[in-house]
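[audit] Reproducing an earlier prediction to check determinism. Same input, same settings, fresh worker. If the tokens differ from the archived copy the diff job will pick it up downstream; this log only records the rerun itself.
[audit] input (301 residues):
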Amino acid sequence: MASSDPEISHSFRFFHVYKDGRVVLHFPPFEKVPPSDDPISGVRFSDVAISSEPPVSVRIFLPESINPTQKLPLVFYVHGGGFCMQSPFSTTYHNFVTTLVNEANVIAVSVDYGLFPTRPVPACYEDSWTALQWVASHSNGKGPHSWLNNHADFQRVFIGGDSAGGNISHTLAARVGSIGLPGTKVVGVVLVHPYFGGTDDDKMWLYMCPTNGGLDDPRLKPVTGDLARLGCERLLIFVAEKDHLMVVGKNYYEELKKSGWGGSVEIVENLGEEHCFHLFNLKYEKAVDLINKFVAFIKQE
């Protein structure tokens, strides 16, 4: 429908806001991959709606090599997309998580959280926490999904995400450290080119979150207290040399080391690469290296 007032009032990296209130995203809608089993890798998929109000769903990935007597680590994955795009059902994230599951031999749960403008921030944080709690509800073997009941090791849980998903993953780890996640042990967290405050994108996040606490909002700029009580033992962070978020990723690493947190943290710099380069060609040599590092982090004893 044509706008009665075509003048733009706000212009951000991922969308324009018009004076009549319309929000128009710069990128086209994603193609949804149906949850049919992968004939090449043998990975199986199951989509589950875990909440209707608000709408929250997940895609569960089960690897081919399932030994009935062995429990597998569980990866809870949070996709990127600037809090306003993408989904675990898109080709990009479906293929990435499938590759991760196949290489690491893990169960993965990829969360479909509410996106701006339909659901402004902080829906992304609350939906992801709801999904993580739903996953943890299977730790007694009596949850609603048999794959998690029968095959997931809830003492080997990992949280991971890229870009906006890295930001959300941090908040989940901070919440686990603050109030716990009964029946589970979050061993590690992986942040791939995470978004945090300190760039021109701050204004965009503040706009997407009308209830924000300003530039010092702890979801935008992690505070020492949250860093000190991250609810995991290990953390791996990737930054990319040509990414405008590299500086804030490195700052997060340095602040975490100074916070008094008792875990171990490692940072990996993807030299010569752009933001989330790995998602666009999973067979590219440096993308393979990133995935291998992610897998090694999960398998580390």
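[audit] rerun output stored. Observation attached for the diff report: The two ends are 56 Å apart (CA to CA).
[audit] end
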